[in-house]
Write the structure tokens for this entry.
Amino acid sequence: MIKLSVNVNKVATVRNSRGGDYPSVLEAVRTCVAAGAPGITMHPRGDERHIRRSDVREIAAWLRERAAGVELNIEGDPRADWLELVHEITPTQATLVPVRAGEITSEAGWSPATDAGELRAIVQELQARGIRVSLFVDPETAAIDWAKTIGGDRVELYTEPFARAFERGPVEAGASFARYVRAAEHAHACGLGINAGHDLDLDNLVLFRGLPHLDEVSIGHALIGRAIFDGLDHVVRAYLDVLRG
């Protein structure tokens, strides 16, 4: 079955809008795990506008002690303080994501023109700690080939273009999905595992779950947004039901 990694950043965004510690990100994690989520994702940014480094430490410790089988995925740009935190925590997976100045959320995958030297060394250091490394890329052959040269274990396909195409109707959705199928087949042929994320939801996931060789989806915004109305436990279970088919 395709794994679901619940991104809890949005819970932290709500908390930070008022300061203090409510709603608790750890409580959200506990709820997701109790509902059956096999993975938790956090993306601590340099400005800590949602997930704080203290959140990462607290949640990682809780998962180790209470939910050892649940995978922890930490996303972020490979800046010095992020790398220090990831090496300290040693999550199951680290997803390297490019960051553009002023962005609200991720806007694109790594450019294949990005210098490979420094990133390759970063990937090797993470892997030496036993951390699986995924690289956030657009569904393009050149980007996947670049990820292979970096030495990553997986790619995470950036799915916002698919989500927007899905909104425009079945013809455009099918054409966009075909593009992702080609990318997934190429990544698999390169020996890379395949993750996906960004704007996947209960509607478009019904099509996207058919992606060949798909290992994991990371979903936060749509899942937490739906949970406002339906309850977090119920929504996690709904996503798991969709992935089971």
The longest strand covers residues 71-76. The mean pLDDT is 95. The chain has one domain: 3-244. DSSP finds eleven helices and eight strands in the chain.
